[in-house]
């Protein structure tokens, strides 16, 4: 019996996970199977993650969004981390990466796997550093032990920084911002201190065997991604990418699923180039990008600078976008920052799907536009990406229930509302203007779930705290 999704797909089997993905994406199960078999898409689904609602990451499917969470030495505990997980699912994250570096990492990770309906990703190198107490003290035995333990705990995908090699390090000389990947900098320090090759690269076949046993998906880390526009698309970044292509093919030989991580900071005119190059070098393996940020001048607004690049990346073929919050480069994000970051990235992902003509992707836009033209305020709010935000902004100036029937908002007022004027013109008897097309039916839309309201993409729930402080299950937005 096949042990991994890609092995099963290669043997012609349509797994229960493939069936669920096909349902959620409104695609033929056989098409899903072919994409997984060819390595063009991944279904991160560790066999030990019982709470998982399977999803797929691939350029032929709806663009997905990841949210990073995690504690540090000075902030956060189990309760807070579960709240972060709840917030991420509530506002529409498709996966979550636990990047914790603080205390109680095992307890928190196990709780996430127990409760999360979306795939959980980790960076095992962080725990290895914590256990070794300094990067240069890390051993290959420790790395493999941490990776195996996290796989047994049910982690669905792991970032493995195996692509940064000793011969790549001199290529970073002359950069403006050096090595900005946390894992990349740790591996670089290890190699500089020890004078040896990257241990993750040396034991990569062993990691593949662990991943195959538990069906963990590789997220091959881009350790040399650019941390500034000046460093984008340089020799160091592309040299590592070539190695990531080799590692992709080795993982496939082990029947292990792979996606590849990408930059970073990239000017707008080179975003598509990055996607095309990765797709060529890595034989079409799904590309998972951070941003990219298209300008470096806007600390405090990097959810915007990066969402611009993310939308372009999605249109060019990126399969998953890693969200950036307004706190990027400045501090740990709080709940409102997570909300703003996920909103920006859901917009970017959806915009890419619309631009790429994914089946039914624009139906949500059309339905909301029709509600807006009809002054159906309640339907507008219901269909909004963030219904609470839309309702709150409207009610700040027109709070009464009577204004939910009004044919204007406070922006234009009664006399200058263009849509009201247009409606009145169309009501003129024997006029030249005809009726409009307003018949979008979201119930029959062929769109994937993530391109239909509500924003949250899963039917499961994660623990939160109710008003009394007792544990409660809080459903995602729009379930009521």
Structure report:
The protein is α/β, with parallel strands linked by helices and 480 residues long. Helices cover 42% and strands 9% of the residues. It is built from 18 helices and 12 strands. It has an 8-stranded parallel barrel, surrounded by 6 helices. The chain has a two-stranded antiparallel ribbon with strand order 1-2. Helix 13 packs parallel to helix 14. The protein starts with a helix and ends in a 6-residue tail after the last strand. 48% of the residues are buried.
List the helices and strands and how they pair.
Elements: H1 5-10, H2 16-25, H3 29-37, E1 41-42, E2 57-58, E3 64-69, H4 78-90, E4 95-98, H5 105-115, E5 120-122, H6 124-132, H7 140-153, E6 157-160, H8 182-194, H9 199-202, H10 204-214, E7 217-220, H11 235-253, E8 258-262, H12 271-281, E9 287-290, H13 302-316, E10 320-322, H14 335-355, H15 363-373, H16 377-383, H17 387-395, H18 418-426, E11 462-465, E12 471-474
Parallel strand pairs: 3-4, 3-10, 4-5, 5-6, 6-7, 7-8, 8-9, 9-10
Antiparallel strand pairs: 1-2, 11-12
Helix pairs in contact: 2-3, 4-5, 6-7, 7-10, 12-13, 13-14, 15-16, 16-17
């Amino acid at each position: 019996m096949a042990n991994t999704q890609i092995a099963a797909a290669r043997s012609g089997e349509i797994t229960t996970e493939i069936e669920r993905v096909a349902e959620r994406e409104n695609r033929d199960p056989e098409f899903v199977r072919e994409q997984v078999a060819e390595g063009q898409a991944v279904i991160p689904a560790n066999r030990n993650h019982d709470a998982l609602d399977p999803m797929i990451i691939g350029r032929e499917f709806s663009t997905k969004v990841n949210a990073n969470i995690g504690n540090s030495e000075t902030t956060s505990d189990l309760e807070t981390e579960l709240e972060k997980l709840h917030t991420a699912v509530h506002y529409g994250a498709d996966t979550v990466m636990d990047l914790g570096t603080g205390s109680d990492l095992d307890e928190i990770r196990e709780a996430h796997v127990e409760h999360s309906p979306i795939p959980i990703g980790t960076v095992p190198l962080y725990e290895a550093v914590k256990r070794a107490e300094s990067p240069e003290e890390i051993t290959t035995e420790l790395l493999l032990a941490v990776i195996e333990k996290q796989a047994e705990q049910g982690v669905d995908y792991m970032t493995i920084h195996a692509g940064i090699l000793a011969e790549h390090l001199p290529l970073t000389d002359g950069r403006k911002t050096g090595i900005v990947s946390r894992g990349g900098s740790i591996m670089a320090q290890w190699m500089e201190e020890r004078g040896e090759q990257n241990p993750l690269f040396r034991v990569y076949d062993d990691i593949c065997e662990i991943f195959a046993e538990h069906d963990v998906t590789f997220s091959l880390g881009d350790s040399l991604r650019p941390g500034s526009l000046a460093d984008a698309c340089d020799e160091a970044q592309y040299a590592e990418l070539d190695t990531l292509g080799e590692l992709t093919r080795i993982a496939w030989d082990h029947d292990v699923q792979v996606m590849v991580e990408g930059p970073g900071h990239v000017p707008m005119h080179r975003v598509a180039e990055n996607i095309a190059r990765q797709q060529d070098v890595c034989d079409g393996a799904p590309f998972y990008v951070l941003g990219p940020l298209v300008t470096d001048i806007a600390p405090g607004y990097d959810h915007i600078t990066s969402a611009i690049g993310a939308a372009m990346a999605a249109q060019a073929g990126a399969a998953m976008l890693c969200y950036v919050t307004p706190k990027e480069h400045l501090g740990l994000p709080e709940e409102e920052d997570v909300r703003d970051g996920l909103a920006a990235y859901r917009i970017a992902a959806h915009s890419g799907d619309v631009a790429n003509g994914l089946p039914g992707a624009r139906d949500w836009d059309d339905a909301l536009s029709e509600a807006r033209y009809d002054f159906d305020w309640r339907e507008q709010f219901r269909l909004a990406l963030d219904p609470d935000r839309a309702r709150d902004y409207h009610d700040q100036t027109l709070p009464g229930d009577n204004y939910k029937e009004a044919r204007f908002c406070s922006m234009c007022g009664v006399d200058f509302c263009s849509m009201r004027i247009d409606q009145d013109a169309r009501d003129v008897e024997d006029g030249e203007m005809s009726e409009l097309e307003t018949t979008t039916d979201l119930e029959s839309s062929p769109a994937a779930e993530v391109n239909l309201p509500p924003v949250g993409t899963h039917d499961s729930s994660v623990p939160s705290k109710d008003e009394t402080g007792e544990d409660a299950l809080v459903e995602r937005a729009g379930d009521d």
